[in-house]
Structures are given as structure tokens and as C-alpha cells.
Write a structure and sequence with these properties.
alpha/beta; eight-stranded mixed β-sheet; globular; 4-hydroxyacetophenone monooxygenase; monooxygenase; FAD-bind_Monooxygenase_sf; oxidoreductase; FAD/NAD-bd_sf
Amino acid sequence: MAGPHDVAIIGTGFSGIAAATALRKEGVRDFVLFERSDDIGGTWLVNRYPGAEVDLESHIYSFSFEPHDWTRTHADWRELLAYLQGVARKWGLYERTLLSTGVADVSWDESSRTWTIRDEAGRQHGPFKAVISAVGFLNTPLVPPFMRGETVFEGDLCHTSTWRDELSLEGKAVGVLGTGSSAVQVVTEAERQGSSVKVFQIEPNWLLPKGARDFTPAERRWNKLKPVYYFRRYRLYLDYDLRQYNASHARVDGRVNKKRLAAARDYLHQEMGDRPELERLLTPDFSVEARRTVISDTYYRSLRSPKVQLVPHAVADVTPSGVVDATGEKHDLDIIVLATGFDAANFISTYRTTGEDGIVLREQWEGGADAFLGVMTPNFPNFFMIFGPNTSGIPLVTYYEAQARFAAKQVRRLASGQVSKITVKTWLHDLYNRRLQRRLGKTVWGEVANYFQGTSGKVVSQWPYSPTSYLLGLRLARWFGTDAE
């Protein structure tokens, strides 16, 4: 009878590909990737709504070991998806991936010290010596209760993360619910293509310009030179590292936070100074960074269009011909776009994870998820996370690669037979999270309700230090953070 596989990877977006390539680099080749969609790509496979593109610069929002001839400073979803699938093909990941295989249940067996996976069709997979969860936390769409399932609306209704290729905004009366990052991108395209656009805003967000543009032919030629490419990447990394040092971007008394607030106010006044009522409606009453700051060159410009109306109210109900807002006013629409974000506070929410002594992860995390450096949590041996609790920082892909290296080095020990069980040190996990929460308490992230928080109000997603401090902490954790048997 064949022995257990070395490792299962759940998810094939940036973090899943990072995990698989890290395993390959460590000499671990017996792994299986599980993907619930019909292709590799994760976020950039499903988020294909009009205008979808990344907020980070292409050079830094990519793998350090796979440079690319980017066409834009900020790549759109098509270029990012092609990039990810190209990396997957280069590293032979398609042959190891079970597509259209969503994971329903992951269970630990103490007697064999292995994990078993049950997919959504009820099939069993495994056993596996380890599991790497690479599903992130932006994967469960938030949809208003009255818009779930079948509705009376006779037009098209779609969340940005479930966009259908056949949908078109051309000549349509478009309603956009939300004012976050995906919403501003949709509004820009809706203004360009649609006959009219109504933006339903519960609260405004702080907004800064992106500076997105196509690279010139000369820039692309220079970028093909590795020293130039990596210099630009390192310069971006250094800028983000300094920006987040001592949480300067997330404290009201931080130099970076003050600078960004002034820049956001100036940008709003520059774009809307001659439209005082719009400027008032678009001015948040919370600190900059208390919610995710939106980055866009085009949103304010779109709102100035005679085709676009900002409705400063929530949608309260849906009708056959459109929606009713919170004041009772009816709005006729051809298409409703839900740019309402994700249930981001519930990590690993797409499948059930059962660890030692029958402990269920979602129950252990009730009120707010926590983990040691986001990669391991007590009672779940040989279980590693990428983009886990409190690891949301910029640049994201740098975090993914570091977490993948950590997991791959631990899996190598399991694969070689040196050990059969690796757990996080509980006392260290608890000490780390107490100090982390004290630090987070000094930031603006707990100021207002946002997706950074769990149901108890605990900040569960954000990292309150610089990326370099995280990389150093994770390197030390390889030696001092775990127990092995």
C-alpha cells in the first residue's frame, strides 16, 4: 500500500503558486494542489469585472524569482492571470493540480499523524503528511440578504467576484453598490460604456491617485535588463518598508499617516473644489487608513460626468425594475453590480478544518482568528497558512514568498522522515498575539467598523510593523517557533 503524500496545497492563486514553487526549491515533489475553479489563478481568475486591476505596482506585485515584461505600471486582471498561469506552466504545476475540486473538509488523524481531505463531491483524498492552506481571506463575497439567491429583479445582478464574461455594461443603466477598490474601477468603466450610472454610497472612503499608465517602449526595453528590473523592484520595496516602519501609516500621530491625510484632502479638493456638495459627500469622518484607502486616478473624474449620480444612501430592497434606497426612492436599473467586498474577517471560511481532539478551527477562532506570525496555530499540527491572520501588509507577494519558504522548510523535515509532527509553541503563540494586539490597539484600524476586524472587534488581518520586521521574525521562527516529534 502506498504511503501518504507529502503535502496538499489548497488554492492556486499567488499564495498557492508561491507554496508549490517553494516546495520544489526544497526538493519536495510529492504534492497535490486543490482548486475549486476550473483553472489556476485564484483572485485574478474570478475577479474579472470591467476595469479590474491591481493597486500595487507590477514590479512588486509579482514573484521575485519570476520577472516579467509588464505592459503597465499597474497590471490589469488579464495580464496578471496570464502571468500566474505562465508561472504555473513553467514550474509544472498543472500536472499536480486537481481543478474543479473544491475542498469541503480537512481532518487530522493523530494515530497516523496525517491529514485527510474530503472534496465538495464527497471524494476522499490523502492521507497527507501536511497541509498548506493558500485560500487567503478575500474569497467569500458579502451580499445583502435581500439579493441572495433568486430575486424579483428582471435585469442582471452580479457580485464583482462572480462576474460573467457575457455581461456587458454597454448602453445600460448601471447601479453600483459600494465605494471601495473594486467599485471605483467598475464605476470608471460603467461611465465610459453605460447610458447612466448610479453609485450607492453608505460612507465615503479616503482616496489617493494611483499614477497608473502604460510603460513606454523604451521603459519596457530597460525593464528587460535584470539589474534595472530588480532595482525598480527594490526601490518600491524600500518605499513601502519605510512607509510602514513603526506603523507610521496607521497611527494618527504617524508622519506617513499625516502626509497621506493631507494628500487625500488635497486630491479631493483639487478634483471637487468646484462641486462643494460632492466634496462634502465624499469626505470621510474617520482617520485615513482606518478603512482601506482607495487608489484611483479616475473615480472622481467619473463622478463629475453628467451620466453619473452619487446616491448617498444604502440600497434597502430590490424591485423588478431596479432598487429602492434607504429613503424609499426607487431607481430603475438594467444591471446591478455588487461591489460590496468580502467576509474578510473569517479566515479559512471555505472549508471545515478539524485538528487535534476534534477541535474545529472556525470554533477555536470564534470572535477573531489568530496565529503565530500568521502561519501556524495551536491544535493543528503540520498545518501551515499563507496570508493567514495579521499578515496583510504591503508588498503582499513578498509576504507570500516568505510564508511559503517557512512552510516548505517544515514540510521538508516531514517528507524526509526526520519528524512526523510539527506544532507551534503554544506559549510563544499566546505571548506573540498578546503583544501584537497591544500594538494594533495603537493604530487607526480599530477606530471604525471595517473588514480588518473579527466579530469581537479584534483586528485580525493587519500587520502593524514593516515588511522587513516580518521577514526577520519568520526567519527566526524557523528555528525557535515550533516543536517537533
